[in-house]
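Quarterly update from the structural biology core.
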Amino acid sequence: RVAERLALEKIKTIGDAYMVAGGLGTDGQGDAERLADMGLEMLELLAKYREETGTDLRIRIGMHTGPAVAGVVGLKKFIYDIWGETVNTASRMESHGVPNRIQVLESTTEKLAGSHIFEERGKVDVKGIGMLNTYFLTGRRDQQNGAGSG
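Predicted structure, tokenized:
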């Protein structure tokens, strides 16, 4: 429901993974910000849930920005999906991430520098790509002194 409220597109669930995209079929204005906000909100909701239930539930979130191809495939059963280097990199950010953190590359920090706060994680050996300098998205600039700043 967070994705829907933020006008983002749920693409699919794959096992325990939830894939969301923004900017498909639009000019992409504000989509990276809304994706970042969704990740932060998911962490806030999870923290609340953990506190209320005492459950040690964790999530890893990976995010990347850039071009992707979207379309419908299938002859009898149709599936909407997205493909491309951006999608693969976002997946790698998640799989090489840290529980309860949102991991991104420098290109995403540059795109969101005016609206969001990042903390450098350092170099990570990313499967199929190599050593990449990664960052954690920790909050919004307009909430820097309040809740949700990291």
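The CA atoms of residues 139 and 149 lie 4 Å apart.
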